[in-house]
Design brief:
This protein has helices at about 5-10, 90-115, 140-150, 165-170, and strands at about 5, 15-25, 25-30, 30-35, 45-50, 55-65, 65-70, 80-85, 115-120, 125-130, 160-165, 185-195, 195-200, 215-220, 225-235. By secondary structure, it is α+β, with helices and mostly antiparallel strands. The chain binds zinc ion (ZN).
Length: about 240
């Protein structure tokens, strides 16, 4: 089983690892990894796996049968190879900032309107939220963004801990983002933005809200009677 280092420390940009297996010359499983596999509404990481002078670009990383698999751009890696992993940090760090922004905005939205996110997708350039809310307007959402941007100016730590599933699910609003719900495990990983939000979640986040910066609404759509969709993004 691969040791998922990004769950312990989302700021690790490089690590040494050993190849456990290679399938079809391009799907590589390592004993440990810093590459986040696509899932829970968060996109995959990219970067490279280096063996000596040979660099293999990691073009995709996903979870298959419980294993984190890295798709590399050319054949050559073999089981027992010692490699060095290097993350595309710019891409990942943007995702960490928007992921943490999404928690904050979901929490403010839940407190102000009672709406829960029914679907969400982080992307490198924007974040999508779907939710059910009868009384909704662009102005209401603009107001939520203004509130979130006030919070992003504060020095607020973000930390994580594990709780037994039963206990975690008693916390009101612990699952505000549909994609974030981890299905079958005994202990849930709780990401806490101190004083702002607690969310069951296996993604990667920044360690202080100040790192998020500011966000802006891209567009708001009505997808049906109560179905709303909004896109927001980090202001560069
Ligand atoms: Zn998260």
């Amino acid at each position: 089983m691969t040791d998922a280092l990004f769950l312990q420390d989302s700021y690790m940009k490089e690590c040494d690892a050993t190849v456990l297996s290679v399938k079809d010359d391009k799907y590589v499983v390592l004993d440990k990894t810093i590459f986040y596999p696509k899932g829970g509404g968060q996109p995959y990481d990219t970067g490279k796996v280096v063996r000596g002078n040979d660099e293999f670009q990691v073009v995709f990383s996903g979870k298959f049968s419980g294993e984190i698999s890295h798709e590399v751009d050319h054949p050559g890696l073999a089981a027992n190879d010692s490699v060095h992993c290097i993350l595309d940090w710019d891409r990942r760090y943007r995702l960490m900032r928007s992921h943490t922004a999404a928690h904050t905005l979901a929490s403010i939205m839940w407190k102000e309107t009672g709406a829960l996110i029914t679907g969400n997708q982080l992307d490198v350039d924007k974040v999508r939220f779907d939710f059910n809310l009868e009384n909704f307007s662009r102005e209401i959402f603009d107001g939520l963004i203004v509130k979130a941007n006030e919070v992003f100016k504060k020095d607020v730590p973000v930390r994580w801990f594990e709780l037994p599933r039963e206990e975690a699910l008693k916390i009101p609003g612990i699952v505000k983002m549909a994609g974030a719900f981890p299905p079958e495990i005994m202990n849930l990983r709780i990401v806490e933005i101190v004083g702002v939000d607690k969310q069951a979640d296996g993604g990667t986040h920044v360690k202080n809200l100040k790192e998020v910066g500011q966000i802006e609404l891209v567009k708001a759509e009505n997808k049906g009677k109560n179905n709303r969709r909004v896109y927001f993004r980090l202001i560069p």
